[in-house]
Every structure is written in C-alpha cells, then in structure tokens.
Amino acid sequence: MGRPAAVLLLLTALAVGGCRGIGPAARSQPTPSATPVGAHIGVVDVETVARAHPRWPELDALTKKLADVAAQLATPPQLSPVVRARIDARLRAQAKKLEAEFQAEVAALRARQAAKLARYVAQLRAEQAAKLNQLRAQIDGELKKGIDARATTLRADLRQYEAQVLEEYRFPIANLRLKTDVVGVATEDELRRITGELDRLLTERDGRVRARAEVLDVVLRDFERARIAEANARLDKAQKAAEVEINRLVVVKKKELDAEARRLTRAKQRAFEGRMNAFRRQLLSVGEGQLASAQGQYVEGLRQREQQLLAERQALQEQRARLEDSILADVKIEVAAIAAARGFDVVLTRYLTNLTGEDMTTDVLARLKR
C-alpha cells in the first residue's frame, strides 16, 4: 500500500475519533478498523497532541465559559428582596417606635405605682405615729398618776413617822423646857447642861425625821425609775410592733400594686400588639401590589435571561466547534507530514487499537511547538 493510502487511513481514524472527542469525556473505545497485515504502523496520542496545540488554552477557556453558562442556566437568580426588605425595614422601624412608647408607658406606670406605695407607707407611718403618740400620752399619764400616788403614800408615811418621832421626843423636850422656863435653874452650869440636852434632843429628833425623808426620797426615785423603764419598754415594744405591722401592710400593698401593674402592663402590651398588627396588615396590603409587580418583572427577567444565556451557549458551542476543527486540521497536517517522512503505511490513534506500532506522539509534539 502506498503513502496516499496511509494518509487516507490517518484521516479516517482521526475523523472517527473527532476533535470533539478530544479529552477524557470522549475516551470510549470504538470498534478497531481492519489493518493490512505487515503494514508499517504509526500511533499518535491525539489528546496529548491536541493539548499541546498553541490554541488549546483558547479551547479550554471556551469550555469553561460553556460550563459557566450551563451553571447559570441551572441556577436562576432569586426574586429581588427589595420590596420585602423595604417592608421589613418599615416594620422594624414601627416596632422600634412602638416598643419605645410601650417602655415609656411601662416606666411611667411603675413610677406611679412606686409613688402610690410611697404615699401609702407615709400614711401608715403617720397613723402609727399618731397611735404611738396617743399611747405615749396615755403611758405618761399613767406614769405621772402612779408616781404621784406613790409620792402621796410616801409623804403620808413620812408625816406619820414624823408625828411618831415628835410624840417620842415631846415629853423629854417639854420637861427640859419646863425646868428652864417655869421651875428655873439654880446655877448657870445647870442652865447650860439643860440647854445642851435640849439642843441634842431637837437635833436628834430632826435628824431622824430628815433621815427618814431621805430614805423615802430614794424609794420614790427608785420607784420613778422603775416605772419610767416600764413605760419606755412598753413604748419600745409598741414601736417595734408598729414597724412589723407597717412592713406587713407594705408587703401586702406592694403585692397588690404589682398585680395591678402586671395587669395594666399586659393590657398595654395587647394594645401595642394590636397597633403593630394593624400597621403590619396595612403595610402588607400595600406591599402585596408591589410584590406582584416585582414578581411579574422577575418572571420576565428570567425569560430574557434564559434566552440570552441560550444564545450565548449556542455561540460558544459554534466557536468551540470551529476551534476544535482548526486544531484537528493542524494535527492532521503534522501527522501526515511525519507519516510521509518516516514511511508509515498506517497511522492510528490510541483510542482505536492496541496493535503494536511506533509511537509518533513526541515527533508530532515537536512539530507543533515550532
């Protein structure tokens, strides 16, 4: 078989592989062609040669663009969230405004409840102070009455004692005075003796009365201190009991006011939620029309985008086909030239046969890189 037959067989083999079969995606094994017995066979790795072609990067870039277009076709863009975002922003702003108003009203409510509690505590303390003052006046009256009664008793006791002492000294003193005033004394010494005895008796008598008065005075002071201590203890006990009662009543009142505050707060919260829901419904009723318009624009945009991408894909596929044909043509030329120079009868690709032959891939690569 002559050289033209070898070249013809090469072109047939490459045509069967196809340049669009270049690459891993086209490594299917077609049925081997019949090869003349005893033919001088050359083998070339079409994929390796094609990848070494100077224009292969262009083909690779086109393939990536096609993959990108396919990905865009497979994942359409989402509906623009502008309208929804605008509605959400207005809802958040209104919610923030209503929340501020709600918190202000709750704070005012708490202040009013605190003022109520303070007035109640002041009223309780005033009432308890009045009761304590009344009790203090009562205790003071009882204390004065008791001390006066005790003082009267002690004074009566002192008078009785004084009368007893006076009676005890009355006759001795009267006798001495009788001697000096009526009977008379014989000598001056006797007069001095009688006068001295009289002074002694008077001093002794008065001293006993004075001592008794001092003792009774101490008794009265002790009695007064004891009664004052008892009165103070009663007042202190009454004050502590009043404080306990005030605290108890304050706790009860605070619970009552807290319950009222919670009830009013819940009512206000329901009112604010109602206002917020009304605003939301009003806003959504306006936004539904905007959303419908945006939906229509979105669908039309999808249709136009798909048409544009399909047209772009078609153009890229045609461009890639032309580039593949150009690369394949260059490879055919170089393979044919080497086959003619080395006297090959047949040149086959690695994809068509596993027959033994000389690998001419390196020579083809060298010619392509010139």
Q: Can you give a write-up of this model?
A:
- The protein is mainly α and 370 residues long.
- It has a domain at 3-72 and 298-368: Protein Binding, DinI Protein, Chain A.
- Helix content is 82%, strand content 3%.
- α3 packs across α5 and α4 runs antiparallel to α5 (188-342).
Secondary-structure map:
Blueprint: H1 3-17, E1 41-44, H2 46-51, H3 56-74, H4 82-183, H5 188-342, E2 346-349, E3 358-359, H6 361-368
Helix pairs in contact: 1-5, 3-5, 4-5, 5-6
Please summarize what this structure is.
The chain is mostly helical. It has helices at residues 3-17, 46-51, 56-74, 82-183, 188-342, 361-368; strands at residues 41-44, 346-349, 358-359.
Feature tags:
single chain, 370 residues, mainly alpha, Protein Binding, DinI Protein, Chain A, 3-stranded parallel β-sheet, 82% helix, rod-shaped
Order of helices and strands: HEHHHHEEH
Low-confidence stretches: 1-21, 23-33
Q: Give the structural class.
A: mainly alpha
Q: Please state the average pLDDT score.
A: 81
| Helicity range | over 70%
Radius of gyration: 66 Å
Number of alpha- plus pi-helical segments: 6
The major beta sheet can be summarized as: 3 strands, parallel
State which percent range the strand residues make up.
under 5%
